[in-house]
Automatic annotation (TrEMBL):
It comes from Dendroctonus ponderosae. GO terms for biological process: potassium ion import across plasma membrane; regulation of monoatomic ion transmembrane transport. It is a multi-pass membrane protein. This is Inward rectifier potassium channel C-terminal domain-containing protein. Residues 1-23 are annotated as: Disordered. The lineage of its organism: Eukaryota, Metazoa, Ecdysozoa, Arthropoda, Hexapoda.
């Protein structure tokens, strides 16, 4: 008696037995499971070289797959991920080794800068000038210093011209009224020791910055000179205060504090407590800690709505935690941030094969208060799909140093990962496997003792299935074993 295998897709409700009117047997093949015993073939696989087996015995061995099998695992550190993928679900994308992968353009660079270009803004210059303080703080140092230099020199020249006009209108620049002739002519100028425009420029600098060399001074002869001297002193103080404020704001910007906050180069996916988890690492290299640190993660990828609208940059919040706590961190050493791939996760249907063709970006945001300045800072980074390592976990970096009597953080291993055995299936398939494995033994046994047919109870939902039909074996004829279902 030979076995002819036909593949058929069917939808079966959970809790109802699968019965075939043609005395056929159904075998679930939603995902491959590697056998943990030498004599038990992988779930959904049949050895063509093996002798013919009694269908009932094969069904009994198949019914025990929940307790005697384990998910196929493979290491992904060598990049040959597709060599170990054993998914047989045709409803999802399969990875092609020779396919050209389209990389998603990064929205947030690794250093935290946003890859955003503003264009076609109405009245852009006017809007930036209305907020000149923020504009100068955000601008580069060379532009800020250039503007300050132009402002100081311009104010000196402006008031020097005003002082020259005061002296010219009063007649202090005539030959008989110059400083060398003032004693003979008994002339009282508005400003002493003014010979020309150069003297007015020097007096403008001395007045604005209160240098006070004692050579050039105003007199009571000209009230306008007294008024201009007061006005220039006030203007000089305003310009200096404006410059000091901008320089201080630029030097104490919270953005600079992020240079000592470090994110791991890659994120990893591995199992933790029997559940697939997406993890990345964050650390602080300073002794002054971040107070009230909190971590967030957002997924950016395309989404199609029910109405057919394509949202190219749809953001989804990812629930993250650290060491079993919520997003608030006690940030004293590098910590591994964990996102559990459960039913609520957008990666619940993502397998290792799907990851090779997915286009998404995970933006991670760390916020907190700087302990030394009290300012709020925000550090950002991102991970593309190509920067997610499946089957890896981070190498420990914290150890106790007995010589120095303290915990030592080795930042040379901050980005190092270790290859670990990890199921290549998705989180949903892994949960389904554990559900089948943990079913009561009574539900795993065939409900029919007839050797010609058997029925498996409580099959998984929405599963691709294979149909086995017994046919008469023709004499002296060898039929090839079909392998298109593998």
């Amino acid at each position: 008696m030979a076995k002819t295998i036909h593949r058929q897709d069917n939808i079966q409700e959970e809790g109802t037995p699968m019965v075939n009117n043609n005395n056929s047997k159904w075998i679930s093949s939603r995902f491959r499971i590697g056998s943990s015993t030498p004599d038990l073939p992988a779930f959904g696989e049949i050895n063509p070289n093996a002798p013919d087996e009694n269908p009932f015995e094969f069904g009994q061995r198949l019914a025990k797959v929940g307790t005697e099998a384990s998910l196929a695992k493979a290491s992904t550190c060598d990049g040959s991920l597709y060599n170990g993928i054993q998914r047989t679900d045709e409803s999802r994308k399969s990875f092609r080794p020779n396919a050209i992968r389209k990389m998603r353009r990064r929205a947030v660079f690794k250093n935290g800068d946003c890859n955003i270009l503003q264009s076609r803004i109405s009245k852009r210059r006017l809007r930036y000038l209305q907020d000149i303080f923020t504009t100068l703080v955000d601008s580069q140092w060379r532009w800020t210093l250039t503007i300050f230099a132009i402002g100081f020199v311009g104010s000196w020249l402006l008031f020097a011209l005003i002082w020259w006009l005061i002296a010219f209108t009063h007649g202090d620049l005539e030959d008989a009224h110059l400083p060398n002739s003032q004693a003979d002519s008994e002339w009282t100028p508005c400003v002493l020791n003014i010979h020309g425009f150069t003297s007015c420029f020097l007096f403008s600098i001395e007045t604005q910055h209160t240098i006070g060399y004692g050579v050039r001074t105003t007199t009571e002869e000209c009230p306008e000179a007294v008024f201009i001297m007061c006005l220039q002193s006030i203007a000089g103080m305003i310009i200096q205060a404006f410059m000091v404020g901008i320089v201080f704001a630029k030097m104490t910007r919270p953005k600079l504090r992020t240079q000592t906050l470090q994110f791991s180069k890659n994120s990893v996916i591995c199992q933790r407590d029997g559940q697939l988890c997406l993890m990345f690492r964050v650390g602080d290299m300073r002794k002054s800690h971040i107070i009230g640190a909190s971590i967030r993660a957002q997924l950016i990828r395309s989404k199609k709505t029910k109405e057919g609208e394509i949202l190219n940059n749809f953001q989804t919040e990812l629930s993250v935690n650290a060491d079993g706590c919520d997003g608030n961190l006690f940030f004293i050493w590098p910590m591994t941030i964990v996102h559990k791939i459960d039913v609520q996760s957008p990666f619940y249907q993502l397998s290792a094969g799907d990851l090779l063709q997915e286009r998404f970006e995970i933006v991670v945001i760390l916020e907190g208060t700087i302990e030394s300045t009290g300012q709020t800072t925000q550090a950002r980074s991102s991970y593309l799909a190509s920067e997610v390592l499946w089957g890896h976990r981070f190498e420990p970096v914290v150890s106790y140093n007995k010589d120095r009597q303290g915990y030592e953080v080795n930042y040379s291993k901050f980005d190092n990962t270790l290859s670990v055995d990890t199921p290549l299936c998705s989180g949903s398939d892994l949960a389904e496997f554990y559900r089948i494995r943990d079913m009561p033994e009574s539900d795993k046994q065939p409900v029919s003792t007839d050797q010609q047919s058997f029925i498996l109870k409580s099959p998984p939902k929405l599963m691709n299935q294979m149909r086995i039909v017994d046919v008469e074996e023709e004499p002296n004829e060898t039929k090839p074993f079909p392998t298109d279902y593998l």
